[in-house]
Amino acid sequence: MRALILVDLQNDFCPGGALPVPDGHTVVPIANRLMARFDLVIATQDWHPRDHGSFAVNHPDKQIGDVVELDGIEQILWPVHCVQDTPGAELHPQLDRSRIDDFVKKGTERTVDSYSGFFDNGRRHATGLAERLRARGVSDVYLCGLATEYCVEFTALDAADLGFTTWLVRDACRGIDRHAGDIQRAIAAMQAKNVRLVESSALECA
Ligand code: VGL
Ligand code: ZN
Question: What domains, with CATH codes, occur in the chain?
Answer without folding.
Answer: 2-49+80-205 (3.40.50.850)
